[in-house]
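Form 12-C: Joint structure prediction
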Amino acid sequence: MSSQFVRLAAAAAASTLAFGFAAVCNAQETPGAATTTARPMSASLAPVTQAMLDGAGKDSKNWLHPNGSYEQTRYYTGNQINAKNVGKLKPAFVFQTAVLESMETAPIVDNGVMFLTTSFNHVYAINAATGEEYWHYKHKLGPIVTVCCGNNNRGVAISEGKLYMGTIDAKLVALDAKTGKLLWEVQIADPDKGYSETMAPAVVDGKVLIGTNGGEYGVRGFVKAFDANDGKLLWTFYSIPDKGHEGVWAKNDATGRDMHRNIEAEKAAFAKDSSFYQTLGGGVWMTPAIDRKTKTVFFVAGNPSPDLYGAIRPGDNLYTNSMVAIDLDKGTYKWHFQYIAHDVWDLDAVSPPILTQAKDKDGKMVDVVIHGGKTGHIYVHERNTGKLIRFSEAMIPQENMWVLPTKEGARMLPGANGGVEWSPMAVNSTLRLAYAANLHQPMTYHVEEVPYPGGKLWLGGAFKTIPSEEQWGRLVAVNLDTGKVAWGVKTPQPLIGGVLATSDLVFNGEANGWFKAYDAKTGKELWKYNCGAGVNAPAVSYMVGGKQYVAVAAGGNNQIDAKRGNSVFVFALP
Amino acid sequence: MTGMFKFALAVAMVVMAFSAYAQLNAAQMAAARAKAQPCAACHGPDGNSQNPDYPILAGQTWRYIYVQLKDFQEGRRSDPQMSPMAMGLSRDDMIALGNFFAAQKPLPIKFQADSAKVEAGRKISEAVLCPMCHLGGYVGQNEIPRVAGQWPKYVKKQLEDFKARRRTNDAGNMTSVAGTLSDADIENLSQYIGNLN
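Section 2 - Result
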């Protein structure tokens, strides 16, 4: 009864989201145990050690991190499924969840057991070769949930015998991987002030790292580290420093274009009041990359609050719209690089950073960290210093940058969703290519003077899509060493979800239900399958019993209103 | 102009699709009823105000009541009578009060509607897209209030206050909408909304 009840509530909420209005649903809190067990867990499930997590990038059996490894390249080393035979790929099974709403989950696979999540923080453990369910966990939500863009979840982190998930009521929960039973939960921040969690955490050296959503509510962003055993808070790094957030009063963006700031007026306003750092935003809402050698955490920080009304928050608004490197053990600052100072377009830095190598300006191969921006550029940084080596050609049209928002609305491309939204990129270092899922959504930017509204949505204006202008997506391969676009494939709808790369293939999904495989070198389409609902989640790959599988969620997407579904599709060769 | 906030409001609605998590059991409801005792003097028994100056709270969304109480307490909304009433409340109190009034049945108000004004109000409500947030039937959702059957005098005052920026705790949405309304529009809308029983 309780599970049916939650389903009903979820379905009701889902339909309200889909149609853009809400009905009042009389849900009750789920009483009793939140976990149901369909069958005993597979005996093959083994604890995931730190050595396995460290070696995950070369592990073709398991998929242990949301983005494949601490480097987050989303590159799968197995090649049983390849460019020669991918045309024969068929569904092996479809796993249907009980929640019909946006799916953004990156399934984790450990020794033939898959852990996947849905909107509203359900978790399932299933057999990764047959789809049979082991258990189903439903997080018991608190009274207050504040989310801007859907009740999404992007997956769990795994370590030893535990799973970790952030929840939309801003908690971190630890589950027993074997049973799905709740081991502990901690409140990360106050949902009443706009904090919520949708990202998959990272777990390393006994620490669980997690940031926060809330850049549309006037939060103060952070990355926190919790003890993986008991949830005790170990350190907090605020993505908004209490001093120095005014920065260097940058006139230009990272690519050298004038952002048309009125710096004199900003300085005068800042002299009067600089106390707004508590509500300055800077959410960190995608999984960080971790350099194990240097014990460094790399994350990107989101937009300042309020999104469009900049006069109320003078200064560069550090570290919003920046790549930031901090120390893994202590959570202390190493370096930052800001892409857009004093952003008034919500063009935040969000797609997860990737650690790889690229040629520097002298042609020498060096360690780099890269980020795909909502601006449509891929930025390549020296990993130790953050220095920008290059930025790629624009992957989507840019027009009228950086026109300031007006009351009546000013048109600029890209629109506020990008470029590259939260969608994780993938890297094939042999081919020297980074793959990015882009969108093109022309918008007008409107500003409205609005004081801090106390935990309510705080855009300080509006973004408005332009109905007469076509929207589309573009999957783009960019050369890491030159920044040139190697190939690009236009898709009929904006792309949100993320990319998977193998030695000679690239997998990517679309809002119209198509899940496609492309030739990694040329972008030629080699295979496609229609999942019947938006494929707006990143694919993963793994092996069970010597057979390779590719899995992807098809649950649609709230943000671009792609058709909702409730399933994970798993493909294999016949 | 009216379509300008479409996206912001659409996003806001997503926030609001979650009315559902704070519900009270019988014992909690009895406790909430006791907490609501001081409200009855102005807002009437069970939140059905008999005085056109004071809003009906019966059937209001719990989250709207909660958010308004919080705003009174934290100074984002102020009123000589309500601000002190909200001062001593805990978060749980405010959640309980919201849920208590949300669970009460709103009764029709007694007022003489002017049919010409009601019709003019209906037209303007469609032009400025009120139902996009307040929903068809004006039953509200989450932090967007139910306004159907609300006292016209109270609705009129709120719209005037939004327009004049005397009330600014709405994150700008109502300010922008009210800025497009004439005095006659406000009068007509108030009649139309009050007449929706």
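Section 3 - Comments
The radius of gyration of chain A is 22 Å. Chain A touches chain B through 49 residues (CB under 8 Å).
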